[in-house]
Amino acid sequence: MSGTAPLILEMVTEVVTETATMEIALTVLGIAVAVFVAGMVVAGSGQSSGLRTAALALALGIVCIHIRDGGWLTNADRSLTSVLAAHHSAGLDHLATVGIALGAPTGAIAVAAVAGIVLIRRRWPVPVASIMLGAVMAAVFAGAALGTALGPGRAAGVRQPVDTGNAVLANLAGTATVLGMTAVITGIGRSRTRRTLLAAAAVITVVALAGARLYLEMPLTGVAAGVLVAAICLTVGHALLAAFASRVPSGTLGAGSEPGFVPAPG
Asked: Burial level of 12, CB count in 10 A (0-12/13-18/19+)?
């Protein structure tokens, strides 16, 4: 163990001080992918969630460092922005603007709160609604904090007709988390096919929203940071749901049945 600490310290120093190099970025991202894959195949929901969360956090960390310092990962930002700027149209401008406006942080929290009320009224367990709202609020606040830490000049794009300043990361992170948690909770007690369809619908919608932000000239690294924040909050939220399910008696939940969930009292 005594020889491991200096090695870890050296790796962290390299990541922080050598952000302009491709080798460091790709190495860290490669490690993150390997850890994430390990989390997908390892037995035990707690270990699996922990590994996936750690992998996503590692990827988010290297992306944020490159955004802050203008590192190698940001090289694609300007070229992609130039390509998309050359293909603007009035119709797509309006469509992208509306899509982003619908994903405001306050809107995401409001949707999560309303969804929680609906879940409780339909006799879903109260903790399920609380976990959903907590995950969305965590994503919004984490995105806003990252936007502030990274600075508005680098966290925002060149032209932001709706998203301005530090709100861009919070917008995408909050909206993506709402969609993901909705898909997870709605899929409880459903068939594997229906859960897959719900997950696919959430992913497609998030990709569309991310594309709208890229179209309106938010940097690719900023979009990636927002999606990673949402993925972390969604992974933790899913793990909390699984932990809650394992601690209560079997019962029914909504229209379907799922071992580990019981209706809310009343």
From this structure: exposed
